[in-house]
Amino acid sequence: MFYTIILLIDFLFFEKGIPLHYRAFLVSLFSISIAYLIFVGKNFIVSAISGTYTRIIYFYNLYDGNLIRLLTSSRSEYLKLGFQSFLDLSQPFSIPWIGFGFEYRLINFGGAGVGGLMEMDLFDVLFGLGIIGTLLVISVIGYFLILSLQTKNHSIYTIALITILLYSFFAGHVLFSALCTTLLGLICGGIMLTHARED
Q1: 173-187: string of b/e by CB count within 10 Å (b at 16+)?
Q2: pTM of the predicted protein model
Q3: Mean pLDDT, range 140-156, rounded to an integer
């Protein structure tokens, strides 16, 4: 929600080339929507925030105050199992370098963390594609991150890329979801266009 608001503010007040009457219409519509949310939908907002707070407290107590388990939704536990299998000396020597492959993991191990996706994309890439595949993926993403940070005026694409990378690390489903990967591709395309305009 906050990210959407940042995008709207950037579009309404900082994007060049938008006609004044169109900008005035959008600002009015945006203001009316915010006023409606505050006055009419405040009970819903309070209920949603209260529910989120209750859920966080519940899991905090369930995990005995372990913040790492809370922040990763217990994915840290699956990560231990994944690394145990990945670094198992009885496995072929090539496994750390080229990975298990996703289908092999699913068939031979099963279960979250070792078989199915761990929902932490960097580790899913590591276990599935190995060190070589992970370095290739990091080099491509790193290229676009460096390119976005080199622009004179950091665009919304820079913020979007950093946000999506953080989301990819903690929550996953970015590199292995068609919808999110499409968004990532559009962000990278926007970074290239922004950089090309400055050149």
Answers
A1: bbbbeeebeeebeeb
A2: 0.66
A3: 84
